[in-house]
Amino acid sequence: MLSIRGRLISFLLRNRHLLSFSSKKKVIDWNTYEAILGFRKDVEKGAGRFGKLPEGIDVVPVSIDNLYADWILPAKVKKDKAILYFHGGGYISGTCKAHREITAKFVKESNIGALLFEYRLAPEHQFPAALDDSIAAYQWLLNQGISSSNIVFMGDSAGGGLCLAALLALRDQGSPLPAAVVALSPWTDLKCTGESYVTKAKICLSPEGTGLAFAKHYAGSNDPALPYISPLYGDLHGLPPMLIFVGGDETMRDDSIRFAEKAKQAGTDITLTVEEGLFHCYPATAPLFPEATQALRDIGIFINKHIDKEKII
After folding, report:
1. I need a surface site. Which of 67, 72, 172, 197 has the fewest CB within 10 A?
2. Tell me: the pLDDT tens digits for 10-31?
3. What positions does the domain Alpha/beta hydrolase fold-3 occupy (predicted)?
């Protein structure tokens, strides 16, 4: 049963429009560029709402083939193991600034540094720009001398889908795959065909109409069912162990359920947690309520199960 604090946080987030003294959620035409610019501004304005950087965490900016990135590192930990973090934002928004605090939580819990990078955004840069940038960031880690067996992919929302798409592309190229993958509410179906896109539309935290609009901005003239866009439609054999969390009250719920079922059938070692009554990417809100805190702990255990903890200098 969902905790009292979990129910309270979920209720407050779902009804946050009431804090603006509005009885209804604002209706936005997400097909317009003005709406995208406004969304990006709101995302940056809200940076840090999930907490501040934990004590003992350093942020070191780096440049990767003209991509901006941050090393987010525990103090006195070497960079011979890494989490490659793929930020969310519907492929049309998201920056390192907006995701530092979130990423740092998983760094602190696992005691393993993360490379958080900014991939190019749609609609200015449509598919395959984000995928190409993701592979470039992974290759950069390999070029730093970090073994693929010491790298874990992690992403939230669109970033979760992107890290799964990158897996498929890397496997098909014959490149070494990371040791494991963690995904929070991954967007695996940009066609938005899951039942939850209808049944959860009114209670999901994501603004209505974003799914298909954002998918169109990212996919452009490409078929959204291409596996490198929507990994749900790919061949899921030969993938590393995965850990997925999704809320029971979000439109992307079925993206995780269907992907996990298909991956398991293909022989992938995959663990899925569907937390009923909770929302999109809920583990990122730890430690606000017990379910998020437990998810954070489970993620740290999973990461350290697949790559050894950093050696203290």
Report:
1. 172
2. 998 888 654 454 556 667 899 9
3. 83-282
